[in-house]
Amino acid sequence: MERRRRAGVGLSDFRDEKIKALSDKIKSYQSVVVAFSGGVDSTFLLLLAMRELGGKVVAATVDSVLMPRREVAEAEELASLLGCSHVILPAEPLKLREVRENSPERCYYCKRYLFGVLCDFARKEGYLAVLDGSNKDDEIDYRPGRRAALELGIQSPLLEAGITKAEIRQYSRKAGLPNWDRPAAACLASRIPYGEEITEDKVRMIEEAEAYLSSLGCSPVRVRWHQGVGRIETSLDHFPAVLEHRRKIADHLKALGFRYVSLDLMGYRRGSLNEVL
Question: How far apart are CA 209 and CA 253, in angstroms?
Answer without folding.
Answer: 6
